[in-house]
């Protein structure tokens, strides 16, 4: 299970808390539930998921089904599994031309790195890929993406720092057509709600893409930094409102201890989680597997 290493800290913390609660109660009462609640909240599962798990535990307890801490773990795993397994679908593909993937997220979330890792993954699957460096706002982003391109041998369309992102998107679409690539992945600048110019840039990029490929983007992938825990949940909420997010990639879950946030996000949103980032190397982007993920949180 590839997620086990990344979720080790989350698992250890939860496991310990459950064991402590279980071994220290003589009488099972409201304070027991409060302790369980705080263990689940501190694993970044969020209020809503925590309440659902607590309700499940209460029901099982009333039926006399809870004998060991293992029983609590099984109840929580079942609920998490149900949340993670709903509304999943594979990444959309365009059968008649390039599949256009638009990467969005705040600065530092891991957009550029995920763009590189995703390109590598698609290439490994035998697809041809073109990258567009439309993050012209962050000084190093273009260089970073070019570097990824060299490293994984994938072409990158880029402009100079500060040049018009929509113009680069235009060039990238033309090149995607000329090269007849399977995938065009567009890295965009980190959204900042305080920067009107940046907020207006995305609609401009979208107009250019749609002029070339009317159905595009086939996915708008929101990249959030999982190691920020509930802040990632907040970002998903904000972006869900601001643009038409269709897919999610959660990064930096390697050893963060905040893996529960994936469940909190999934519980709140209907967009599928497609990828999980477990490191900085090309092969460290994992397709999201709900069953393995739920299992890794507890065992
Ligand atoms: P952007 O501003 O959203 O494009 O963010 P970057 O792609 O530049 O990523 C910010 C930092 O996070 C970089 O140092 C990346 O190497 C690092 N990073 C991105 N994804 C992961 C991940 O899954 N795990 C770890 N450990 N680091 C990551």
Automatic annotation (TrEMBL):
<keyword id="KW-0675">Receptor</keyword>
<dbReference type="InterPro" id="IPR004390">
    <property type="entry name" value="SR_rcpt_FtsY"/>
</dbReference>
<keyword id="KW-0963">Cytoplasm</keyword>
<keyword id="KW-0378">Hydrolase</keyword>
<keyword id="KW-0547">Nucleotide-binding</keyword>
<dbReference type="InterPro" id="IPR042101">
    <property type="entry name" value="SRP54_N_sf"/>
</dbReference>
<feature type="binding site">
    <location>
        <begin position="187"/>
        <end position="191"/>
    </location>
    <ligand>
        <name>GTP</name>
    </ligand>
</feature>
<dbReference type="InterPro" id="IPR013822">
    <property type="entry name" value="Signal_recog_particl_SRP54_hlx"/>
</dbReference>
<dbReference type="InterPro" id="IPR027417">
    <property type="entry name" value="P-loop_NTPase"/>
</dbReference>
<keyword id="KW-0342">GTP-binding</keyword>
<protein>
    <recommendedName>
        <fullName>Signal recognition particle receptor FtsY</fullName>
        <ecNumber>3.6.5.4</ecNumber>
    </recommendedName>
</protein>
<keyword id="KW-1003">Cell membrane</keyword>
<comment type="subunit">
    <text>Part of the signal recognition particle protein translocation system, which is composed of SRP and FtsY.</text>
</comment>
<keyword id="KW-0472">Membrane</keyword>
<dbReference type="Pfam" id="PF00448">
    <property type="entry name" value="SRP54"/>
</dbReference>
<dbReference type="Pfam" id="PF02881">
    <property type="entry name" value="SRP54_N"/>
</dbReference>
<feature type="binding site">
    <location>
        <begin position="251"/>
        <end position="254"/>
    </location>
    <ligand>
        <name>GTP</name>
    </ligand>
</feature>
<dbReference type="InterPro" id="IPR036225">
    <property type="entry name" value="SRP/SRP_N"/>
</dbReference>
<dbReference type="InterPro" id="IPR000897">
    <property type="entry name" value="SRP54_GTPase_dom"/>
</dbReference>
<comment type="function">
    <text>Involved in targeting and insertion of nascent membrane proteins into the cytoplasmic membrane. Acts as a receptor for the complex formed by the signal recognition particle (SRP) and the ribosome-nascent chain (RNC).</text>
</comment>
<feature type="binding site">
    <location>
        <begin position="105"/>
        <end position="112"/>
    </location>
    <ligand>
        <name>GTP</name>
    </ligand>
</feature>
<feature type="domain" description="SRP54-type proteins GTP-binding">
    <location>
        <begin position="272"/>
        <end position="285"/>
    </location>
</feature>
<comment type="similarity">
    <text>Belongs to the GTP-binding SRP family. FtsY subfamily.</text>
</comment>
<dbReference type="InterPro" id="IPR003593">
    <property type="entry name" value="AAA+_ATPase"/>
</dbReference>
